[in-house]
Amino acid sequence: MYRVIHQLNEQNFDRPITKSEAAVLAYLKENFSKIPRETVVKIAHESYTSQATINRTAKLLGFKGFSDLKYAIKEDVALMNSGTDSHIRNTEYVLSKIDFDSSDCLVKELFKSRHKLLLFGLGASNVSAQYMARQLLYLGIPAIVVSELQMLKRFEDYTILILSSSGETQRCLQIMHDAKKVNMKVLSITKKESSIMQGSDCAFCHDVAVDKMEGISREQQLHMILMINEVINKLKGEHFSDQH
């Protein structure tokens, strides 16, 4: 498991950070692969901070000081460059951030709404929505992927499932708002404690950092695909086992 990279993405610290610590964290994130070759003096100079701030930031990240942090970053960089092992570790990390128990409610609601189901996602999440629609079709559930707000007016007695990795995309929030206006049930696959999750009747949630760093950005929809597969497998196992 990475020791530093995920902490820099999530920044879930037990105290507020100072402006100078934020500058150091930003520098570490932007220059991650170079850090093992840099000195504390150079980092202090380029981040417009001090050596004391860098050591304090290292402790904020859970290390004894900059030397300890630097060694951990070196190990992370090696993992990022190690091919298969890197992908395995990242997948393990993603799996640990998915609340699989929260899928049960979603599966039940999807089965109830299987004859009148809409899917909505934007950008990369739209690709995930298309993938889910195809998997549902294999189960005999003809879900409709919608892309425009105006389409909701034609499906007022449907249920909508919003796929949003961040749970804060403005158009997704608008879709949710408009769906509620026409009394649609709103389901979601989204980030824990996000606006989409809080506004949903039922949500399957993850806590994966949204702003991925260079080197693992290509995996930013991995959690969504894993979550979709979990839903499909549960639908097939719990509700369609006698039919297939």
From TrEMBL:
Residues 106-238 form the SIS domain. It comes from the Bacteria. GO terms for biological process: carbohydrate derivative metabolic process. GO terms for molecular function: carbohydrate derivative binding; DNA binding; DNA-binding transcription factor activity. Residues 4-80 form the HTH rpiR-type domain. InterPro entries: Homeodomain-like_sf (IPR009057), HTH_RpiR (IPR000281), RpiR-like (IPR047640), SIS_dom (IPR001347), SIS_dom_sf (IPR046348), WH-like_DNA-bd_sf (IPR036388). This is Transcriptional regulator, RpiR family. It comes from Alkalibacterium pelagium.
